[in-house]
Amino acid sequence: MLHTFDFDGLRIPANLPRVPSPVPGGFVVPAGPVALLHPFGDTEFYRHGWNSWSPSGWARTDGETIGIKDSPNRLLTADDAANETPHAHSGAAVGAIAGTDGDVLLLGALGVGSPRVGADRNVLWGRAEEHTADWFVAYGPERQVFADYADLVSERLGRRTGSAGTVWSSWYSYFEGIDEELVARTVSDLAGYPFDVFQLDDGWEPIVGDWVAGPKFPSGMAVTARTIADAGFTPGLWLAPLIALPGSELARTRPDLLVQDDDGRPLITGYNWGSHYHSLDTTQDEVKDHLREVFETVVGWGYRYLKLDFMYAGAVTGKRSIPLHREAVYREAVQHIRSVVGDSVYLLGCGVPMIPSVGVFDGARVGPDVGAFWDNAERPGDPSGVGARNSIVASINRAWMKRLYEVDPDAVYFRSARSLLDDGERQALRDTAAILEFRSTSDPIAWLSAQEREQLIAYMEETSVIEQTGRYSFRIDGREVDLTPIVTGTVVTDAASLVV
Ligand code: 9PG
């Protein structure tokens, strides 16, 4: 049906499935394809990536699109490969068009079904693989319409209230090179430092897919959890419970539990660890039983903070035992995990589809992996690539998501050793994490100078008052912080900080 929105005199003709209803800040449009005829011509479009690692940000409608280009394997892992439009501007679930005087026209889905929003110089459109979610349409000040959208999403999908506190994670220092003894030493060096959580990352399991203690943890994972708890920290653990590498026992012995391709073979659903991997078909009762056992075990070991990674793989297109929409399947799988671990375990989502994770995860990563270098010269033009700059750009463009769950911009650094980041770059990372209100690091105390240790303590002990003064500018405890030059790419990095 044809309808004309009237936003205080700004008339927006639209093609809608049914009559919209007014709500605070805008209108709710019933599920179905939507097209809004905007009067702004070529302007900026806010593109939102599908999962934690997917590129998000503002791009001109007459300029390059934002997304992962020329890398199908990476696209499959780090965005919604099924819906990517490299030559047209589009993103997942929500999008916005810049109007006049800082006002924007926003269109956002209020649920799952792989909703997609795109734009060109004339139209802001929305469609979905499965039209089950209503839309929110609003025109007004940028921060206001994003806040109103987030609040409506939370009204429908929930808002968890768990708080991570300060986190030490093993990834951005040791990577997979962790073992029982190294962890014990690192924990003992950290004793007395202001961290709430000590989180073991990837490297403890024998292989991704088999969630038992690997050979580097001969005493078992419960002993390490005890070591961590005895030092005064909440034990945290990384798992990728919805995927399995081809060499895992799960994939070798029970390929029938995996999401299938059209030929009835396990579907390839992403790439990492030098391999492709597969997804668990969480619609099967045996898979639910398997997940129950994994999570009862992990909680039984004593872990109370779980970083669940590569979760998007539970929401990819593929053949499952029940033909439910993939994002609904994903949400049910996480709800199942939540029901097993209980309410008091903190769940941090990583590589999660963003909107389907609202109300089930306590926190979510909102950008690609950080790195101890500014930019990745090997992958120019891939905004999902590892590096400090990509991480800041994606995270700051998702600051509005704080209203949905805690938003994790990834670790910050204090160390000057084993890093190519200069003082200013480290500060930009720390400012970003202060703005997003999620503070974590991977720096072992032994890698820090006396002064850097002081800096770490001061940073982890403070809670800042954050004011937003512009799209990318903030006041942190009264100090002006302008990330605009970093986000818009007008900062020239010095050649020494590029990884070659
Ligand atoms: C452990 C790591 C860390 C890290 C996670 C995740 O798009 N990708 O191909 C891609 C691969 C790996 C990756 C992120 C993205 O890293 O983000 O914090 O836990 O796994 O293996």
Care to give the gist of this entry?
This is Alpha-galactosidase. The chain is α/β, with parallel strands linked by helices and about 500 residues long.
How would you describe this structure to a colleague?
The structure is a single chain. Residues 493-500 have low confidence and may be disordered. The chain contains 12 helices and 29 strands. The chain folds into 2 domains: 2-157, no CATH class; 167-498, TIM Barrel (Alpha-Beta Barrel). It is globular and about 65 Å long. The protein is an alpha/beta fold and 500 residues long. α7 packs parallel to α8 and α9 runs parallel beside α10 (423-436). 4-nitrophenyl alpha-D-galactopyranoside is lined by residues 53, 74, 77-78, 171, 201-202, 238, 272, 309, 350, 369, 384. It holds the Pfam family Melibiase. This is Alpha-galactosidase.
- Name the strands of the widest sheet in spatial order: 24-22-21-20-16-15-14-25
Q: What's the number of domains?
A: 2
Overall strand count: 29
Secondary-structure class = alpha/beta
CATH homologous superfamily heading of the largest domain:
Aldolase class I
CA distance, first residue to last residue: 55 Å
Strand content: 15-25%
**Individual helix count:** 12
Bound molecules: 4-nitrophenyl alpha-D-galactopyranoside
Q: CATH topology of the largest domain, what is it called?
A: TIM Barrel
Report on the biggest sheet: 8 strands, parallel
InterPro entries: Aldolase_TIM, Alpha-glycosidase_related, GH, Glyco_hydro_36
Pfam families: Melibiase (PF02065)
Keywords: Glycosidase, Hydrolase
Protein name: Alpha-galactosidase
